Amino acid sequence: MTLPAVRLVAPAPFSRTSGGYCYDREILAGLRRLGVHAEPLAVEGPFPGPDSRAARSLDRALEGLADGTLVVLDGLAAGAAPTVVSAHAPRLCLIALVHHPLHLEAPDHLEEPDEGHPPGGREALRTLEAAGLVRVRGVIVPSEASAGSVRELGIPAERIRIVAPGVRLPSSPVGPVGDRHAGEGSDEEVRLLAVGALIPRKGLHVLLEVLAELDAPPWSLDVVGSTEADPIYAARLRERAEQPDLASRIRIRGELPEAALEELRSQAHLAVHPALHEGWGIVLAEAMVRGLPVVTTTAGAIPDVVPPGAGARVPPGDPVALRAALVRFIVDREARRRAGEVARNHARNLPDWSTQARAFRTALEELRADVAAPSASPNQRGTPDGIPGKFEPAWLRLREPVDHRSRSTGLEDLLMERARREGWDTAVDLGGGTGSNVRHLSRRLQGAGIPIPRWTVVDHDPRLLAALPPQVGAVRGSLAEQGLQVAAGSALVTASALLDLVTGEWIEALADSLETTTRAVLLTLSWDGSARWREADPPADPRPGPDGDRHPPLRSDPRMEALMAAVHRHQEGDKGMGPALGPRAPRVAEEVFRRRGWEVHRAHAPWQLDAADLALALELVRGWLEAAAEVDPGTSEAARSLLEDRLHLLARGQLVLEVGHLDLLALPPRGALIDPGRVT
Questions:
Q1: Buried b (16+ CB within 10 A) or exposed e, 73-89
Q2: Are the CB atoms for 24 and 165 separated by under 8 Å?
Q3: Is the omega angle on the peptide bond into residue 633 within 30 degrees of 0, that is, cis?
Q4: Pick the CATH number of 380-535+573-610+659-671 from 3.40.50.150, 3.40.50.2000, 3.40.50.1100, 3.40.50.970
Q5: Would you tell me how many other CB atoms lie within 10 Å of the CB of residue 255?
Q6: CA 195 to centroid of chain Cα atoms
Q7: What is the pLDDT of residues 525-581, one digit of tens each?
């Protein structure tokens, strides 16, 4: 198979001194040597972390590529922009290159909670990254450790390929490290070298505190790596290194040209890499191939790179073990010599970059040839079978806890009181899927000491019905036929998140079909068409705004208004029964039952989605963009950057997304048992 042109997308600049950028540069060069037209495509924005500027830059970069282009997305560029990835996945062949999952850059081991990352940053990044990776064609990783981390994000093993980095031999012969005299009574200092970006994951804060306790023999440390990835952390490292106990021994050099780095390697006696996580560890292989022993950790893939005998491998974040290893190799020159020989012999048997470029090309060919489309958005699907609303189990699992906490407790209290007085023995949930509504109402009934009726769930999807417990009856069929038949003989009729998918005629038929046995109809969580973004409550400032509203919405944005108008039009399309009611459904249902003399109670039941609900918010927004794109592609494209911005703010805990729903409780015309004024 002939591989087409390849664009590798990563944050600028590609010249950064880090293992990930070294991998990117070497793979591009290797692909070009193999005759593949492979070019970098730089995007702007700080990484890691959800950043709206980075998302907009990525969006513009991908928009400029022709349909069908093979795009390798470095995980730094793609990990925090899932809506952008989703928007371009249908027309581009997107393959992610994940050196290590991005959320592992948000440490939870530091004393300070805001090391350049948002509150709860690790979980937010994990959610964002998983939502983006599920939409690409496949994922390439450098190690089995990284593959395992990607599988934990929900990516199946068959869509993952492992291509380890190669190793470059030094351009000039390097003498054994034992020839670099230092230690064992020599006054010459032992020179330590640490290479890698100044970010928390590299563990340099642990190293500096350990070194502050070491006095003799003389030692020094050169730190080489970017200070831009996490400026706050880098500044704190520099401030610590300038304290009197370290200032004369530590040189933080920032990024250096390759020649200058090579000079430092030639002068070093020991490579130090105290990483807390590592997807591979190219800097370790680069040190070992030059005969440098290494003191490192067992984090991530490091044991796959550094063999026993090439130095010391200690538990990550363990200062006692790190100190013992450093003392041994600083003091014992012979130990350094032996470890350096083991390191060099091992590293020179690692594959070179030409070999790994061929492996990378093979991985691209395999993933590109896989005709299985990336996982579609796990919310609503189109329905060719004439039944409204196909839903994926993943979407139903995401929304269930939010559904349960959002429902009107006032209406349910009315329902419980009616059930306690009348003692119902049968209940049906229409379009009930995996039984979320049944679970919620059964818990409410049980908590109120009311016998749970015999439940039946009607749904068209056998996958969802299979998840029901055995005590719940399952009827596979359409709402228009089996649904109405089962409802007609049930004391309690319920449905959740269903009304906006059906027609007015179906609601009329439902009301007409209910016999005298029906004692209550509860129709919950019908979307009313509203969605607003508002600022999250300040933790210590619960005061209302000037108009008495504690939750003032953000200023109206025409892009959001146009998007929601397009979503409304999509929602009112044919879902299998004819034109759906969409947001008009709750009002129509209320009117239908009132005309028949039923007592109808209505209550608001909005979703309030905050940072803890990021996964659900992502899928909801993705669904909006996809729905709008079907009726007005320009509107969807215009709103994408706005929604990406707001999702990032939601992930940081600064915004809340409020989605309006209405709950209806209809009681038959036999006299109300409860004061109807309690709920409006």
A1: bbbbbbbbbbbbbbbbb
A2: no
A3: no
A4: 3.40.50.150
A5: 18
A6: 29
A7: 999 999 999 999 875 444 444 334 445 567 789 999 999 999 999 999 988 788 999
